[in-house]
Each structure stands twice: as structure tokens, then as C-alpha cells.
């Protein structure tokens, strides 16, 4: 027992430090594995890097010095190995990387080599080790050496944020590992300043782990994790502008939020090209990827139903109708997302033979990791069919109670709008004709435009779209279309998700970008169920998907004064083009400089804060100390840069008095010591070369 306690006492501190090395490596290097799109094979290299970090730490414990030469030799060997063994791959890799950087494309390492080179796993292993080794060395150095600890922490925070600045996403798991590591390092190397017992360190580490677990489980998802930089910057812009009416324009990014969100866009929309959803299927097919539906429109938002319908299967009612009236084939589809969602993306038309997917709030099914069985052929079946046995009449009554509401004031305007255009409620008996009539009416009254401007604070979303602004995105058309159909007595609901085309599939995998996020409607037909309809002028999923693809790929900023293309009723729908990542593409932002302005502002704020902290660090550090402690802290800081024998005698005498005697340093002695310290700063600065002065003044903050 005593031997175990002795072992625990001697090695617990080392065990905690090793845990921190692993957390830091997973947090930093692991995020690079995810964000840069390395193939899964480099997980072996990630494990090797963790072992190298532990090896560096053991070397320091034994020799009390970091293995700089060893780390440098390994880096040189890796570089030479790539040059000698993979010359062709390295050349192609560098050229492709240069093209990505120049054109500002989405960087994905596993796509920088042609398909016939994907088997070169060793090459990616060496690239990953080459990138990760300096980072692991920095992590170990921050744990082992107290020198420049604050600078090391800032460097690691910058490395952690780097993927965000190149428009990549972070993973929550790795990010929380980094947060635990960096908080631990800050507490013990900067804030606490002293070496505490292993028991105290263990308590702090446990507390940080518990806090991170609670934060990841119960708090709203962090906007940095699993969102690319443009989304984060747009949120920062919103924070600065307080929402509507900001001087730069209120920008919204395409994509889906992690939870059910009924908010509608109040400003211009920018198309985000980051990856959203990956779909695997044996047979390519086109379909909406349905996320959720909403029932009630009020206060410029859509809301869920106020009364839940138990055991609802509204997503599969029409699928059962089709299966009864035709022999359409089905297949299993696997869907994975880049971030966590409360709901499951579902292609049309879902089959639930075992009724294992209950529909929550008559809106969506919960997230599942199991494949979904769907009817994969395009379905345009609107004729009469057989009512299938077991059809729920009570659900139809529920639909009429919840999917026909229109706000009272808006109802009067919509009714007059329909009457003025020769549409009355007699058309409700033919849902397809009603939808086509409403879609054509919207096309004649408004244009599809992602730069619809800012919604005035005192205006209704639909009213402003139909009667004043007359331009908007898919959410404008879907919202207005749903309410107009309800005014005709046709139950309709608003739906959000993504569009997917058969042409998106490559070797059975379709990667759907964020800009394919879309809004459409579902119309309820008695005896059949909910049927999806497109409300934009394109009229179908192929048209709207092609429009979004072409909007991203074309240079709209130069051709039409930085405006996203609009669709008039007499325009043709653009044809699809191949989106080659190595063909120049331009940003679709209508305000191309807003991100640059925000980025520059963030950088300037960081520089100002950094400059203030570094120049006032000793003052902040010693503000609660007595004079003896102040003298010793400043003396130690000076001793780090100057050999002891070069410190003047007067300064040394005051420091020794503070250290080795019971004398309490008076205010006059402290002020004299501080004066000598400042004189030394001036003299030392004059003795440095110009590049050393830059580091001394502006990096280390001594002047």
C-alpha cells in the first residue's frame, strides 16, 4: 500500500502532463486531420505523433532540455523522404495546393491528388507527420518550459483557429480536448505562476473535463465548431450590427442550423460552398433532402404545431399510397452530416415498414445512424388511386385544424390579391392546378433574387415581398405560396432541407454543399398524404439546383454590378455546368469587401489587445504583490534575457535583499529598482540589431 502511494506521489504529476500532451495533440493536430480532409489512414500518424510527444516529454524529464536537434532531424528526414520517394506526388500536390490558395477554393487534402494516387497512403502519412510534428513539439515545450509561456499559448490558439480562417470546420470532440488543454496550461503557466501538487492539478483537470462535458451536452452548439469561417464572420457582423438595418447590409449564409429553426431571412443571402451532407446510395437519384416542416406563420417566423399528433407517420403516408398504386423500386440510403442536427435528413419517399420512425411534432424524425429505405425513382403521380387500408381519418381532421391558418390581417390582403388575379377557391379540388396557378402568379409578381435587401422593422415578411419589394429567395416564394394556398382552403406546410441531383453522385456518393439549402412546400391531398412542390419559377428540383450551382460558379460580381442573378418570368433556366475545383470561380457575395473588413477589424483588435497585454504584463502580474515580490518578479524577468554577471550591483543588491533577508522593501527602494529596470530596458534595446529590436519591442512587448 505504501509502495503504491509512493509511486502515485512520484509519478502522478508526469501522468497528468502526459494526459495534457495527448489532449493537446488531439485538439490541435486532430482538428487538422478533420478540417483539412486527410484520408482516414493518417490516424496512424496521429497516434505516432502522440507517442512522439510523450517521448519528447520523457527526454526533457531525464535531461532537463527539449530535444530540439532530434525534432529537427525527424523533420528533415520526413522532407527528404517525401522528395526522394514521392517526387511526382509532391510536385502535383504543391501545384494543386497553389491553385487552391490562389483561387480561394475549399481545401481538401484527399482531393489534391488524382484518383490513381489515392493508394499512396504513406505519402499522406509523411505530410501529416511533417505538419503535426512542430505542433506537438510546441505542446510539449509549453508543458515543460515556463519560458515565453504566454506566447506559446497565443501561438496554439492561433493554430487552433487557423482552419477557421481558411474556411474549414472544426469538430466538437477535438475542440473540447483543446479547450481543456489550453485552459489547464493558462492556469498553471500564466495565471497561477506556481507549481502545485499533483492532487490540485488532478482536481483542476477533472473540473475542466466535467465543465467541457456539460458544455457539450447541454449548451447551444458553439458557432466555431463545425461551421466554416464565412458563417462565423456573418454572425460577428450580425453582433456588430444588432440585426436589422446595419450599414453594411444584413447578410445571411446558406445552410441549416442544428435545431428546428423557423426564422426567415431579413437581408441579403450569401452562398456558402462548404460541405453540408454526404449521401450514399447504389443508384443515383434526385430528391429533396427533407429536414423538417413547420405549420404556423406569425411574427415573420414559422413555428411548429401547437398540438402534437401522437404516432404521426406523415412522412410515409404518400409513400404508402405510391406503394399501393404502383410497383416503384426502393433502395437503402445512408446520410451523414458535417455537424450534429436534432433531426434526420430524409429523401422522398421514405418507407417505414416496421414503423420505427415516429414523426415528432408532425414535422421530422429524430437523427438515426441506420440506412433509410426510400423510393428512389422520380415520382410525378398525382392521379386518382386507391385509398389504402388503415388510413387515419383523424389525422386529416388534425391537418385541417393546423395547416390552414393565415394571420387575420394578412388573410384579407392575400384574398384580395388572389381575387384581383382571377383565382378563387374553386381551384382547391385540383391541388396540382392550384400549385401551378400560385407558382405562375408569384413568378409574374416577383423575381428570384438572393439580394432582396433588408426587411424593414415594421413590415410583414410576406406583405413586403408581394406588394413592395417584389423580390426574394426560396423562403419568400415558399412562405408566400403556402399562405396563398391556405387562403384557397388547401392544407400546406413550409419545409426546409437541401436539394440533391442524380448528377451529384460519384461512385455512389453525393456531397451536397451548404448553398443547396432550400425551402419548398408540402400540400396535403385527402387519401394520399403530403406531396412536395417547388414554388420558385424553376418549378422542379432540377431547375433550382442548377440555378444555385450556376450562381456559385459564374462571375456575377463583374457582369451585373455585384448582384446575384435574378429570374424574370420570360428567362430560361440556366443549364448545369461542371463545377471543377481547378477552374477559376468567383465569390457570389454582393458586398465582396464585408468579410475583408470584418477580418481586418478582428486582426486589429487582436493586435491592440495583444500589444496592451504584452506591454503591461508585468504590471498586471504584480498588481496584487508586495514590494518584495515585485522586485523578485522583475529581477527574474531581467535575468532571463541577461546573464547574471551583467546585472548592475545596485539592482542586484535590492533583489538579494528582497530574496534573502527579512527586510521589507520600501516604496522608495521599489521605485528605484523599477527606475533601474527601465534604464536597462533602454540600454538593452539600443544594443540589439534591428530585427532583434522588432522582436524585443513588438513581439515580447518590452517597449
List the defining traits of the structure above.
51% helix; elongated; single chain; 5-stranded antiparallel β-sheet; 703 residues; alpha+beta; 6-stranded antiparallel β-sheet; 23 helices
Chain-wise SSE layout:
Layout: H1 2-35, H2 43-63, H3 68-85, H4 87-103, H5 121-144, H6 149-165, H7 172-191, H8 198-218, H9 229-241, E1 251-253, E2 268-270, E3 275-280, E4 287-294, E5 296-298, E6 301-303, H10 317-325, E7 330-337, E8 346-347, E9 350-351, E10 372-375, H11 393-402, H12 408-420, H13 431-445, E11 447-448, H14 461-469, E12 471-472, H15 474-487, E13 492-500, E14 505-506, E15 509-513, E16 517-525, E17 529-533, H16 541-553, H17 556-559, H18 594-615, H19 617-621, H20 627-641, H21 649-660, H22 667-686, H23 690-699
Parallel strand pairs: 1-2, 11-12
Antiparallel strand pairs: 3-7, 3-15, 4-8, 4-13, 5-6, 7-10, 9-10, 13-16, 14-15, 16-17
